[in-house]
Amino acid sequence: MRPLLEVRDLVVRFPLPRRRPWHRRTFHPAVDGVSFTVAPGETLGLVGESGSGKTTVGRTVLGLQRADSGTVTCGDADVTRFGRVVPTAYRRRVQAVFQDPYGSLNPTMVVADLVGEPLGLHTGLTCREREERVVELLELVGLSARHLGRYPYHFSGGQQQRIAIARALALEPELIILDEPVSALDVSIQSQVVNLLEDVQERTGVAYLFIAHDLAVVRHISDRIAVMHRGRLVEIGDADQVCDAPAHPYAQLLLASVLDADLDGREARRARRRELAASFRTAPDR
Ligand SMILES: Nc1ncnc2c1ncn2[C@@H]1O[C@H](COP(=O)(O)OP(=O)(O)OP(=O)(O)O)[C@@H](O)[C@H]1O
């Protein structure tokens, strides 16, 4: 099947602060030669420690961050050729949901406007049609028409994230970049939102690039998992394969912290961590 999203040899560099004004400018490769694809309707989990470059990849796919080299294509759109303004047609096809739902929802707007705004901007629906569609979207994420007139602060974190998801779904995108969408939520609410995302995917066929540092959550939702370390993609494969038999020492280390709970006794856990940390330090970068 032809991929929906194709990222090839992506490099994104950020300037480092100069120690002295006359020093030459140096750059830090936040993303360093990353390649992967996402098929229509697929979920690719992107994991890695803080600072490994996950968000930068997501922002580049959204067209919010310029690539220094490499290509990012989504369908027939070549994102690396976009100018400063992301074309409207692309914004319809690729949407995003971020970590902090309250921060990403305008606190002065009621739910009807928050979810209906993209419809007003990008479609020719009448007010009535728009409201009907907003109610449909709210029902899709487990809310209802009685929430239309409420403001974001009336909702819990999990419900706010549902509103953000409904808004992202309004224009029937082909791909949603989910950047740590459940990290700010309680564990019990996390599973509700993850189940909701799976349910929405089953009904709409939308693809997800699911960015997170929590491997347990990523394993649950992803078809495939890509592991990033210091800007590079060190492993990519089937979710079960990456979690059960990771090949790269960094992926093993990441997994060990999740699997600690399964190991018997504190000492065994420490020994395993020491062993992996040692192999990780000595292993060459791939
Ligand atoms: N606008 C920027 N200017 C300079 N450096 C940046 C900028 N954005 C990101 N970086 C740097 O690029 C690297 C990758 O950052 P990025 O946010 O993509 O990582 P991440 O894996 O998403 O981390 P986290 O999980 O903490 O969000 C980091 O070293 C970060 O400091």
Automatic annotation (TrEMBL):
A single Gene Ontology molecular function, please?
A: ATP binding
Domain ABC transporter per the UniProt entry, residue ranges: 5-255
Keywords noted in UniProt? ATP-binding, Nucleotide-binding, Transport
Nucleotide-binding as a keyword of this entry, yes or no, is: yes
List the CDD domains.
ABC_NikE_OppD_transporters (cd03257)
Q: Quick check: keyword Metal-binding in the entry?
A: no
**Organism's domain of life?**
Bacteria
Q: Which InterPro entries match?
A: AAA+_ATPase (IPR003593), ABC_transp_ATP-bind (IPR050319), ABC_transporter-like_ATP-bd (IPR003439), ABC_transporter-like_CS (IPR017871), Oligopep_ABC_C (IPR013563)
Question: What family does this belong to?
Answer: Belongs to the ABC transporter superfamily.
Tell me what this protein is called: ATP-binding cassette domain-containing protein
The organism of origin for this protein: Nonomuraea harbinensis
